[in-house]
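Hey everyone, long-time lurker, first post.

I ran two proteins through the pipeline my lab uses and got sequence/structure pairs for each. Pasting them in order. The first:
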Amino acid sequence: MLLNRYEHLFFNANFKEAGPNGYAAYRGELIVKEGEVADAQGRRKPPVEVLKQAILLSCGDELKLVAGSLDELQHFPSFVENFAADLKPGTLLVLFTVNIDKAFVAAVNGAKAVFIPLVQGMVWTELTEMVGLEKGDFKGQGAAEKVVTLYDALKAEKFAYPEVSVDEAMKSTNNAKRENHGAV
C-alpha cells in the first residue's frame, strides 16, 4: 500500500484504512518539516510544520488526492520534498493556505495543485461544501469510502482560479495567522 511509504510522516492520525477497489485513505496530520534530533537516542523535537487536517487517498501505487491546511505557503517546498516521487499527472492537491490573499492553481511535477486562502475553518467541511456534498451522500459509508466519494466529486470540480507558479505566489504572501476558536 502506497500510504505505508509515508507512515513516518503521519502525526495525530485519525485513521489509515483500505477502501474499495484498491483505494486506501488517511486522515490526520502530516509532518511537512521534522523537528531536530533532541538526544543521543535519536528522538526528535515536535515537528516544525505540519499539514493540518490532512486527507490522503491512494489507489494502488498512485497518489490520487492530498488535501489539508498549510500555515504558510513558504512550507510548500518542504512538502514537495517529502512527496515529489508521487506527485504526478492525475494527482490532485487542494491546500488551504493561511497566508495567501487569492486562490490560484499551479502545476507541481505535473500534478494539479489548488491553493485556497483560509484562516479558519475545517478542511473536510470546506471541501464538501465546495463540491456540494451533504451528509446523506456519505450515509452508510466507511471512513475510506467517504474519502473516495469526496475525491470523485473533486475530480469534476473546475477550480476556475488563475494559474500562478508557487514561486511567484510566494512573493505576495501576507502575515495572516490561523484563527482558532473554542473553549476558553
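...and the second, right after it:
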Amino acid sequence: MTWLGNPVIDDRLVLCIPADNTEAWVLAAHDIQTACQPLECVQKPDMIISNQGYKKPRRLLRRKDGKPKKTKRDYQQLIPVVLDNWEEVKRLCPQAAKFENDFKGD
C-alpha cells in the first residue's frame, strides 16, 4: 500500500489486482494519443510496452531472455501514470470501467 500512497486503514480491506488487464491499462495510460480501442483485446500488451523503440528514449519495461521483465521498481513508476490517467484508461479499456464499478459496488 505504501507505493500507492495510502496506508491500510481497515483490516476488512481486500486488495484486488486485475492481473489479466494490468499491462493493457499501462499501455492505455501511457499512450492515450494513439491508443486504439479496446486495448484489452490486444495480444500481449506487455510485449508492446517492452519493445525497444516504444516510448523513446526508454521502453516502459525491459526484457530478459526475450520476455518482459516485470519488476516492482518498474511498476512503481508505471502505476502512478495509470492512476493519473484513470478516466482515459476506463474510456479505452472497458474492463477497467467494469472493475471500478464492481469494486465500488455500483
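Reply from user beta_strand_b:
Welcome! Quick read of the second one: The helical segments are 22-30, 45-49, 72-84, 86-92, 94-104. Residues 72-84 form the longest helix (13 residues).
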